[in-house]
């Protein structure tokens, strides 16, 4: 059955949703996006996503296309129309339509569209699916803190991982330090402490990361923010990744090397369980 798409304030069948070939999002990747988790028919961490979206728009000088309330209403309506109880919600905002020119005029009307997808990984009610990662060079631009639609670096990294027989890429910066996965934030656990790369312009401020670290602190788990290399990953007790629709997912293997005991670690499982409790409590 065809999905319903939300395009510029209108709900349309997916085969009727069309954008201009002169949209700057298509020509220049002049656009930002957000990927939301949907759990129990509700958007997970909406306010955090909204804050990141607003920052991304401001950094690129794209005019906010609508009020926060109108955005929430539109996205909630889309979830209802597609009858999504658990899944993924994608929102894309471009600078708008204009004849091809690197310089952009002011006052363009943004193009806004959103769609839903089913879960690619296991449900929150199921045991988490362990990941196998393969390392790949991080070739992205310097402003990774802005969530733009220019994802070619991740596309190529994920292709390297696929050819290596892995589930996901683990990107390594030119200095040899781990940044993140192709579509997820990445962490290691050493001596029951979470090691997280600090947030700067070279790292996306993951929303699930933000909530997970808050939950970890509430649980009394020590968080160490520092850069680390691939050899540190190989020597870690546990590793895991976080993402909007995958929540907290254990990583058991990187480049064919087993992490820790090769089983899902206790810190990872505790974090996943407490994270889901926290998310559902926020719905009440």
From TrEMBL:
The UniProt catalytic activity note for this protein reads: L-isoleucine + 2-oxoglutarate = (S)-3-methyl-2-oxopentanoate + L-glutamate; L-valine + 2-oxoglutarate = 3-methyl-2-oxobutanoate + L-glutamate; L-leucine + 2-oxoglutarate = 4-methyl-2-oxopentanoate + L-glutamate
Q: For this protein, what is the EC number?
A: 2.6.1.42
Q: What metabolic or biological pathway is this protein involved in? A: Amino-acid biosynthesis; L-isoleucine biosynthesis; L-isoleucine from 2-oxobutanoate: step 4/4; Amino-acid biosynthesis; L-leucine biosynthesis; L-leucine from 3-methyl-2-oxobutanoate: step 4/4; Amino-acid biosynthesis; L-valine biosynthesis; L-valine from pyruvate: step 4/4
One term of GO molecular function: L-isoleucine-2-oxoglutarate transaminase activity
Q: Share an example GO biological-process annotation for this protein.
A: amino acid biosynthetic process
Give an example GO cellular component term for this record.
cytosol
A Pfam family that the UniProt record links to this protein: Aminotran_4
List the cofactors.
Answer: pyridoxal 5'-phosphate
Q: Does the keyword Transferase apply?
A: yes
List the InterPro entries hit by this protein, alphabetically: Aminotrans_IV (IPR001544), Aminotransferase-like (IPR036038), BCAT-like_C (IPR043132), BCAT-like_N (IPR043131), Class-IV_PLP-Dep_Aminotrnsfr (IPR050571)
According to the UniProt record, what class of enzyme is this? transferase
Q: Cite the entry's keywords alphabetically.
A: Amino-acid biosynthesis, Aminotransferase, Branched-chain amino acid biosynthesis, Pyridoxal phosphate, Transferase
The record's family statement is:
Belongs to the class-IV pyridoxal-phosphate-dependent aminotransferase family.
PANTHER family, A to Z? AMINO-ACID AMINOTRANSFERASE (PTHR42743), AMINODEOXYCHORISMATE LYASE (PTHR42743:SF11)
What this chain does, per the entry, is described as: Acts on leucine, isoleucine and valine.
Output this protein's name.
Probable branched-chain-amino-acid aminotransferase
Origin species? Roseovarius aestuarii
């Amino acid at each position: 059955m065809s999905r319903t798409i939300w395009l510029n304030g209108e709900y349309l069948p997916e085969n009727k949703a069309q954008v201009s070939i002169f949209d700057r999002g298509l020509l220049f990747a002049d656009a930002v996006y957000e990927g939301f988790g949907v759990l129990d028919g509700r958007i997970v961490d909406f306010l955090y996503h909204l804050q990141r979206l607003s920052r991304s728009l401001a950094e690129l000088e794209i005019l906010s296309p609508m009020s926060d309330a109108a955005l929430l209403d539109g996205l909630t309506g889309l979830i209802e129309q597609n009858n999504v109880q658990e899944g993924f919600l994608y929102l894309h905002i471009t600078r708008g339509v204009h004849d091809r020119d690197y310089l952009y005029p002011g006052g363009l009307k943004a193009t806004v569209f959103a769609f839903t997808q089913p879960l690619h990984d296991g449900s929150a009610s199921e045991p988490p699916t362990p990941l196998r990662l393969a390392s790949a060079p991080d070739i992205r631009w310097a402003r990774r803190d802005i969530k733009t639609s220019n994802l070619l670096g991740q596309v190529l990294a994920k292709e390297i991982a696929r050819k290596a027989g892995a589930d996901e890429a683990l990107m390594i910066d030119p200095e040899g330090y781990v940044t993140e996965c192709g579509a997820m934030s990445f962490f290691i656990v050493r001596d029951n402490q979470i090691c997280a790369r600090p947030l700067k312009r070279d790292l996306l401020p993951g929303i699930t990361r933000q909530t997970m670290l808050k939950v970890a602190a509430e649980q009394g788990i020590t968080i160490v923010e520092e850069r680390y290399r691939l050899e540190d990953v190989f020597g870690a007790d546990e590793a895991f990744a976080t993402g909007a629709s995958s929540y907290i997912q254990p990583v058991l293997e990187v480049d064919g090397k087993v992490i820790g005991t090769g089983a899902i670690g206790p810190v990872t499982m505790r974090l996943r369980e407490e994270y889901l409790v926290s998310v559902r409590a926020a719905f009440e």
